[in-house]
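Sequence design from tokenized structure. All designs in this work follow the same two-part layout: the structure record, then the generated sequence. An example of the structure record is given first.
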């Protein structure tokens, strides 16, 4: 049996092998959809000239996970050999995980458990990309010791609120899993409490998180003295009223006794504290993960080991084939996290730590 690997481009993979497309039949639509810019690649195993197994893989740029987005095989032996080859390739590439996305009614191939794949806990029903899909993962290194919950932001501006609520739930508090209100109600209500309209700046988000967290201890670090995340608002009213809100958040932080550090937190400290059980909300530039323009974004770091930081990313690019399988338990090299955790021309860094109280 021979294997071939072919990139299918960054848009619709119209150049899939004709023989494979014919073998896929009606299932070919899943292989033909646009998956820009997530590196869609087809690996095909053949016996003679006939395709007998294939996987379509994708990955976010600058991350350490590859995802099987589609799978086909004429028998388990052919499929197992091909997936084993993908695992070996991923190990050699330094990846931390191989993920596998399946439709909820799609059976898991019987060899998956033998190859080390385990089922991921389903997410909360939230944004597009959380429905109709199940997920598996095969850890190659940096396996998390816990699996936090996953909820996807339902708007373009509630990433900070979602990351904060996921942090409280990971710490054993309310989050999205308790409290008697629907997930979206929790998302929007928290965002309104933390928002600088529309972004959540670090100090305001930390104040809202401390109020939400009954048992946790919050501290925020921002190596910038003036207002932040206002680069697009000029010098008029839109800038001034948001700057006033940030000044009020700083006042409230002081009144609450919340630690506000003006130091630049090193990536080594983030790693060390997360290794020790802390949760870290990181203000990042998400552009490097999407080959796109710079956009400020909040993610939750909850595990670190072996030069890898594992995050929950609330954002799913569902229209380009992403699902919660991509953004739940997403491993990224610490040097990439270091580069992404900076925003604006000044490259300031916003980090919020949530520590469980001793009691």
């Amino acid at each position: 049996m021979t294997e071939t690997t072919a990139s299918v481009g960054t848009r619709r993979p119209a150049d899939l092998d004709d023989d494979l497309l014919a073998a896929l039949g009606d299932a070919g639509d899943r292989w033909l959809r646009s998956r820009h810019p997530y590196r869609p690649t087809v690996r095909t195993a053949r016996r003679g000239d006939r395709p007998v197994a294939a996987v379509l893989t994708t990955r976010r740029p600058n991350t350490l996970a590859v995802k099987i987005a589609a799978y086909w095989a004429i028998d388990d032996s052919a499929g197992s050999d091909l997936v084993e080859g993908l695992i070996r390739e991923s190990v050699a590439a330094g990846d931390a995980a191989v993920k596998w996305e399946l439709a909820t009614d799609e059976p898991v191939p019987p060899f998956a458990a033998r190859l080390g794949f385990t089922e991921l806990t389903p997410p909360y029903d939230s944004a597009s990309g959380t429905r109709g899909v199940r997920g598996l993962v095969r850890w190659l290194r940096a396996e998390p010791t816990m699996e936090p919950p996953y909820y996807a932001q339902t708007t373009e501006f509630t990433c900070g609120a979602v990351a904060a609520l996921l942090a409280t739930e990971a710490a054993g508090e309310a989050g999205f899993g308790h409290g008697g209100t629907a997930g979206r109600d929790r998302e929007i209500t928290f965002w309104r409490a933390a928002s600088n309209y529309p972004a959540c700046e670090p100090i305001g988000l930390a104040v809202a998180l401390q109020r939400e967290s009954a048992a946790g201890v919050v501290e925020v670090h921002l190596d910038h003295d003036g207002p932040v995340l206002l680069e697009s608002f000029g010098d008029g009213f839109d800038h001034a009223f948001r700057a006033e809100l940030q000044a009020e958040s700083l006042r409230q932080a002081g009144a609450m006794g919340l630690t506000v550090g003006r130091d630049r937190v090193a990536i080594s400290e983030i790693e060390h504290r997360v290794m020790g059980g802390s949760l870290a909300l990181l203000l990042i530039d998400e552009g490097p993960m999407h080959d796109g323009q710079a956009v400020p974004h909040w993610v939750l770091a909850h595990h670190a080991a072996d030069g890898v930081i594992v995050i929950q990313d609330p954002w799913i690019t569902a229209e380009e084939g992403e699902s919660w399988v991509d953004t739940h338990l997403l491993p990224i090299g610490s040097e990439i996290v270091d580069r992404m955790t900076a925003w604006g021309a000044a490259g300031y860094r916003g980090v919020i730590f949530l520590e469980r109280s001793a009691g």
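The two ends are 60 Å apart (CA to CA). We note this feature because it recurs in several other targets discussed in the main text.
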